[in-house]
Design goal:
Length: 418
């Protein structure tokens, strides 16, 4: 057995978490491997498709499924890597039938003095000398867009480079901290290869080993009073433990479309400020997990730093207090009932604390009926998520508003009573 086994009639008991699923026939032969942002939603989509009539090659396999196995992963990114590993080693027949495996992409390290991280087609790995040119490789990866997005996510953690060394000026990625300086030889080949060894551990699915290694190196740097290196390792560990892989949501290129009534995000936190003519200011924090309210996770804040109406200041205070609670898991998205001012205030706090999470605001229109989302428009993945799951974000906004108003009224009633 590869993962946890579940019988076909019990498929609705699959978890709503990222991972990979494996379809087996009655003889116990592995037929197909797929990745999912939500295992339950993804597997269910095949059976809905079959009911309406098969439309894609993979749906032909549904009638032959005898049981399902699955492996949960902490993130969608790790589901992508696990899927590639299983396809490579198990060679499920339907994965090969869906697409010529020679056109699949592979993540490769080159054999250069400063190894570059590149994407290579399977057919190009079969040419003479390819093994020497690309001594380290991972794959095959099915979706080109998703694979490129995955590499960019890893770049935020490992600062890999595809530069040619010896340039006079640092490249754009070096200027924003996503290239360690290969372009200008600001980093030695030895130090750079150490970064790639960490990345290789992650690509091999050895996240826990990597985390332990980073902790050990961070402690050694602190003992040697190399606090700059210790801080760099700490930031890398934090980025690893808080992977933000929204760019991968909804990009299962070679599978049936996801059920868009289901929200794939593990956790969204929504915030709203409430007051009565500038007095009795309070804030609400509501939590949605997989598109549904998680009311036990809700929190209320009495604003202490402002006695007059100041929504932006109150929001800064709320987020600053919330982020002191390391025991509360970070959300995939911070969702704010407010416009540019409120969104910018939250983004500033997150930047100061080096927390890499997107912030989305929903500006209030007349009678709260106008919907205008405020976010970084350069983030195309976030734009896609908002278009796909806008109905969920409206629910978060409405619930944050309701919860804040309820708390504010309750406080006013208690004040009037006393």
């Amino acid at each position: 057995m590869i993962g946890f086994r579940i019988e076909l009639p019990d498929r609705n008991k699959l978890p709503e978490s990222p991972g990979v699923y494996l379809f087996f026939d009655a003889a116990g032969t592995l037929m197909y491997v797929g990745k999912a942002t939500s295992l339950k939603s993804r597997v269910s989509s095949y059976f809905r498709a079959q009911k309406d009539g098969p439309t894609r090659a993979i749906e032909e396999v549904v009638s032959d499924i005898a049981h399902i196995e699955y492996i949960e992963t902490p993130t969608v990114l790790e589901a992508l890597l696990k899927e590639a590993d299983l396809i490579r080693h198990k060679k499920p027949p339907y994965n090969v039938l869906l697409k010529d495996d020679k056109s699949f992409l592979w993540i490769c390290f080159t054999a250069d003095e400063y190894p570059r991280v590149v994407l290579v087609r399977g057919k190009d790995l079969e040419i003479a000398g390819a093994e020497k040119m690309y001594p380290k490789r991972w794959g095959p990866f099915v979706g080109a867009k998703m694979t490129r997005s995955a590499l960019e996510i890893m770049r935020r953690i490992f600062s890999w480079s595809d530069c040619t060394p010896g340039q006079k000026r640092p490249c754009f990625n070096a200027q924003i901290g996503r290239c360690p300086g290969v372009c200008t030889r600001a980093i030695s080949p030895t130090a750079y290869k150490k970064i790639l060894r960490r990345m290789a551990l992650f690509l091999d699915g050895k996240r826990s080993t990597l985390e332990a290694q980073l902790l050990k190196e961070m402690a050694a740097a602190a003992r040697a009073e190399d606090f700059e290196q210790a801080a760099l390792l700490r930031n890398q560990l934090f980025a690893l433990q808080h992977i933000q892989d929204i760019a991968l949501i909804g990009r299962e290129d070679d599978e049936p479309s996801a059920n868009l009534s289901v929200n794939p995000f593990k956790r969204i936190e929504g915030y709203d400020i409430s007051h009565l003519s500038g007095t009795g200011m309070v804030a609400s924090m509501v939590v949605f997990e997989h598109g549904e309210p998680a009311k036990k996770e809700y929190r209320k804040f009495e604003i202490k730093g402002f006695t007059k109406s100041n929504d932006t200041g109150a929001l800064r205070e709320t987020l600053s207090r919330r982020l002191t609670h390391a025991e509360w898991p970070l959300p995939e998205i911070f969702f704010i009932d407010g416009g540019e001012g409120q969104v910018n205030a939250v983004m500033k706090i997150l930047r100061e604390l080096k927390i890499d999470r997107p912030v989305v605001g929903i500006a209030k229109g007349a009678l709260r009926k106008n919907i205008r989302y405020v976010f970084d428009r350069r983030n195309t993945a976030l734009d896609r998520a908002i278009r796909l799951y806008g109905h969920i974000f409206v629910k978060v906004r409405n619930e944050a508003h309701r919860f804040a108003i309820t708390y504010q009224r309750k406080k006013r009633q208690m004040r009037d009573f006393t």
